[in-house]
Amino acid sequence: MKTSSDLDSEKRQAALKATEFVHDGMIVGLGTGTTSKHLIIALGERVRAGLKIHAVPTSHDTAALARHSGIPLIESDNAWMIDLAIDGADQVDPAFNLVKGGGGALLKEKIVAAAAKQFIVMVDHTKLVPALGGSFPLPIEVVPFGWGSTARHIETASGGKAVLRQRDGNVFQTEAGHVILDLHMPNIDDPAALEIELNQIPGIVETGLFIGRTSILIVGNGRRADVTHARGS
């Protein structure tokens, strides 16, 4: 059985492989989470060695680490032309659809992914699943006003249970001042249809479903990092 140290090594393996796709002159979207930390540290080393890039961070933590690593950042209100966004994921299905948002940065992560010409996803092997949902809840970012009513609408639409996320005994708030409902439900058979249905519910800001956005999937498996291009990419 692999330990947490083994899995962290796989994340670093995937992150190091992802840096090979970053070249001089690029604007790079930087994800949030443990795998993205490995990416940012590795990119910082390349920047100090002469790589010339600018980056768009998806959270305050990512921005702080990028600055510490010497990576120049672009102001968040600019109209970006992002060449490449790189991020981790909580789940990846065989069609490269994702569940993201375990760290609470799903809104910014989706904005950056949507603005990028290519979106690279890097994970350890445990994030690969036959179907989304099931063992991992779907994060849904909602406005605080009437969140209980929004939760009921979500449960009616999905057949699942929406739980308000808390951290250290307090309601978790995103950087945008929203809250997150973690939707526990069985396997998601049609993630694209569910995303459309959820986005029709007033009060929902964004869901953690990333459908058809992945260009390249990089999976660390302990021996090497496997790279797979999505169809049409």
Short description:
The chain has 233 residues and is an alpha/beta fold. The chain contains six helices and 17 strands. The chain has a six-stranded mixed beta sheet with strand order 2-1-3-6-16-17. A four-stranded antiparallel beta sheet has the order 9-12-8-14. It has a three-stranded antiparallel beta sheet with strand order 4-5-15, with helices on one face.
Characterise the protein shown here.
By secondary structure, the protein is α/β, with parallel strands linked by helices. The chain folds into 2 domains: 4-128 and 212-222, 3-Layer(aba) Sandwich (Rossmann fold); 132-205, ACT domain (Alpha-Beta Plaits, 2-Layer Sandwich). It is 30% helix and 28% strand. It has helices at 4-19, 34-48, 60-68, 106-115, 147-158, 191-198; strands spanning 27-30, 54-57, 82-87, 91-92, 98-99, 116-124, 132-133, 138-142, 161-164, 166-167, 170-171, 179-184, 187-188, 204-207, 209-210, 216-220, 225-229. A 6-stranded mixed β-sheet has the order 2-1-3-6-16-17. α2 links the parallel β1 and β2. It is globular and about 55 Å long. It starts with a helix and ends with a strand. The mean pLDDT is 95.
